[in-house]
Specification:
Blueprint: H1 4-8, H2 13-17, H3 25-40, E1 43-48, H4 54-65, E2 69-73, H5 76-94, E3 100-102, H6 112-120, H7 125-128, H8 138-149, H9 168-172, H10 192-202, E4 205-209, H11 210-219, E5 233-236, H12 242-250, E6 252-255, H13 256-271, H14 280-302, E7 309-312, H15 317-341, H16 346-366, E8 372-379, E9 382-389, H17 393-401, E10 406-411, H18 421-426, E11 434-437, H19 443-446, E12 447-450, H20 463-478, E13 482-485, H21 489-502, E14 511-513, H22 519-529, E15 533-536, E16 553-556, H23 567-578, H24 583-600, E17 611-615, H25 619-622, H26 626-632, E18 637-639, H27 642-652, H28 660-664
Parallel strand pairs: 1-10, 1-11, 2-4, 2-5, 3-4, 5-10, 12-17, 12-18, 13-15, 13-16, 14-15, 16-17
Antiparallel strand pairs: 6-9, 7-8, 8-9
């Protein structure tokens, strides 16, 4: 059998099979360590810098190990890439066939029962009303889905051309954990979710995403089997997302939309022909309980703050506590009434949903303020009550320990300098072995870190204008090809307005602004343009890969400290302070440094990339903690000279394309 050194080396199967494959000693080093962890069934935390090729570095050992491996990613896009491209390529190159399954959350699969209800009208009111009441394009899309449903094997809605998960039809033809009838569903024998789960349980390698993994780990949802229980190893890519996601799963949230959906489904069930075991008295009791739940929901709405946004529970403790308790009791009553009426059918499933919502409300209302942050969020579409625990380390570690096997966490951003403590501490993995692998890219040669001098403090009124004043000459020197990353939507809007005002006589570069088009479309058009300027906030700081000349300048407005005005952030700060900790050192600073590391990492994505990262915040050099941020960044050449930054950009900017008129001149 080939050794890993032969597989990843010159003339090896990967180089022979993959035209773009590059031999990297860093990739081999990671693969060898992952192979050891798989063989020993141990924990391992690996930070692999951009360009390491970490995907192949864990796929090859996984395929060679002969054990059952669960691979979890942060996004559906990476899931699809692993399943459709990376795993088939590596498997073919190694001559190691494997049974591979792709498993997404249930909301990605067609629900045949919900499609039938849409066809019949049912609760799908927007599709069954007048043409004027239907969402634009919904009827045509539903027709397309019906045709596709006749031939699809997997039922993955990503197969449907032109259908995005924001389309109004998507929610009408998929189920949720709450609305799924499970084994009581008449379509269970053809259920795409059930088929996907069965295939996953029989596969050698299963590709899931973090949301699905954590649901299986923390909630045992769906009742379709324990994925983790049958896996010998779990590999978590983009693992930097796990602490925050796990905190959400170990918390609790109840939204008005969840309850409204429950009540809507119940009204549909009560309007259906009565089942023999139901009876008129049972229906009347259910209708009365439904009205009670609706009334308490309206009572809670009446005490909500008028302004939208997220606020701390404590600010409205008295009114919220009483109204929430009434709401909870009405849902408990609804559950009890429905459970008496039907022990097997759809009504029993509605009873379970009501009971689950009531239990979550009870958990949120009863928690001690030292254990978690309780918040209320009001939006134009409704409201939600949430609980986020402050410390999940013991619970997460206990769940990991209860499942014997290898656990491998990997990402490009897990450490600060040489320290992994912030990441491992949050998950209770402080004793786990760690490995840090630097990027193979030559950042000192390929990039420049420019820290402008003389900018005002970030809290000053003219700060965003000063950032734009700093950015524009550099954008001109680079001839476009720039990201300008902001830390808030307010600053983003202000920056976009300032740029448009400056370029009102004709923008020299095409401007792409987050929120004006879907994220993936903005990125696709930015790449195609080659000289665009993209303005974005948090969603563009990570998970964005623009290789080549299209991106040669990244301007970062200010250090990405989470706003202390956010109720969750403020609650965590208060909790750490009350516990005798240092909230800034232990929470705010490391979180911001890791976020900055993500943002700066957008620039150099290959050996052929060149460019400048600009961090406008004067605190980088003016405050002692600036060294923590500098240590988190790749080893770029540092300058405070604007002319040096402009020359570097001009030297690596693409040559201007002659206009047609100039080309035609004699």
């Amino acid at each position: 059998m080939l050794e890993l050194e032969d597989i990843f080396g010159h003339g090896g199967p990967l180089e022979r099979a993959l035209p773009d494959f590059k031999v990297r000693r860093e990739q081999l080093r990671m693969a060898e360590r992952v192979a050891d962890a798989l063989a020993a069934r141990e924990l391992l935390v690996v930070e692999a810098g951009t360009g390491t090729g970490k995907t192949f570095a864990y796929l090859v050992p996984a395929l060679l190990s002969g054990i059952r491996v669960l691979i979890s990613t942060g996004t559906r896009t990476l899931q699809d890439q692993l399943f459709c491209k990376d795993l088939p390529l590596v498997s073919a190159a190694l001559g190691r066939p494997a049974v591979v399954a792709l498993l997404k959350g249930r909301a990605n699969y067609l629900c045949r029962q919900r499609l039938t209800q849409a066809d019949e009208g049912g609760e799908q009111l927007p599709l069954s009303g007048s043409a004027a009441s239907r969402p634009r394009g919904s009827h045509a899309m539903l027709t397309r889905i019906r045709r596709w449903a006749l031939t699809t094997r997997r039922g993955d809605l990503a197969e449907v051309r032109g259908l995005s998960d924001s389309h109004p039809v998507w929610a009408q033809v998929t189920s949720t954990r709450e609305s799924c009838l499970g084994t009581r569903c008449p379509e269970i024998s053809r259920c795409h979710v059930a088929v996907a789960r069965r295939e996953a349980l029989e596969a050698d390698i299963v590709i899931v995403n973090h949301h699905l993994l954590l649901a299986d780990l923390a909630l045992k949802e769906d009742g379709f089997g324990d994925l983790l229980g049958s896996a010998d190893a779990v590999i978590l890519d983009e693992a930097h997302q796990i602490p925050d996601l796990a905190t959400q799963f170990f918390g609790a949230t109840v939204s008005s939309r969840q309850v409204e959906a429950l009540l809507r489904d119940l009204r549909v069930e009560l309007a259906a022909p009565r089942r023999a075991q139901g009876g008129e008295s049972s229906a009347a009791a259910a209708a009365a309980a439904l009205r009670g739940a609706e009334e308490t929901l309206q009572q809670l709405r009446s005490v909500l703050p008028a302004t939208q946004g997220r606020v701390a529970w404590a600010r409205h403790r008295t009114t919220l506590g009483a109204a929430t308790a009434q709401w909870m009791r009405s849902l408990e009553n609804l559950s009890a009434v429905l459970a008496r009426g039907d022990e097997q059918g759809a009504t029993a499933q509605l009873a379970e949903r009501a009971a689950d919502l009531a239990a979550s409300l009870a958990h949120i209302a009863a928690v001690d303020e030292l254990d978690g942050a309780r918040t209320l969020e009001v939006s134009a579409r409704g409201f939600s009550l949430s609980l986020m625990p402050f410390d999940i380390s013991e619970r997460f570690r206990a769940l990991v320990d209860s499942r014997r096997g290898a656990w491998i966490f990997t990402s490009a951003t897990l450490s600060l300098g040489e320290e992994f403590g912030h990441f491992t501490g949050r998950l209770g993995l402080a004793a786990a072995p760690t490995l840090r692998i630097d990027s193979p890219f030559d950042h000192e040669r390929q990039s420049l870190l420019y820290l402008p001098a003389g900018l005002p403090e970030p809290m000053s009124q003219g700060y965003v204008a000063a950032v734009i004043d700093t950015a524009v000459p550099l954008i001109d020197a680079a001839r476009g090809g720039a990201f300008v990353l902001f830390t808030s939507h307010r600053a983003l809007s202000q920056g976009a307005a300032l740029l448009r005002n400056r370029w009102q006589d004709g923008a020299p570069y095409r401007l792409f602004v987050q929120g004006e088009a879907p994220r993936e479309r903005l990125l696709e058009e930015f790449r195609a343009d080659g000289n665009g300027v993209l303005l974005g906030t948090a969603s563009f700081w990570e998970g964005v890969d623009v290789k080549g000349e299209a991106l040669r300048l990244v301007v970062i407005e200010k250090l990405p400290f989470a706003s202390p005005e956010d109720p969750l952030v403020r609650a965590r700060i208060e909790h750490l302070t009350a516990s005798g900790g240092n909230a800034f050192r232990d929470y705010q600073l490391p979180e911001a440094a890791l976020a900055l590391k993500q943002g700066a990492g957008r620039l150099i994505r290959s050996e052929d990339d060149y460019g400048v990262v600009v961090i406008c915040d004067p605190r980088m050099l003016g405050r002692g903690y600036g060294r923590v941020f500098l240590a988190a960044l790749p080893p770029m050449t540092l300058t405070q000279d604007p002319d040096e930054a402009a020359r570097f950009l001009a030297r690596h900017a693409p040559r201007p394309v002659p206009s047609a008129r100039a080309a035609a001149a004699p």
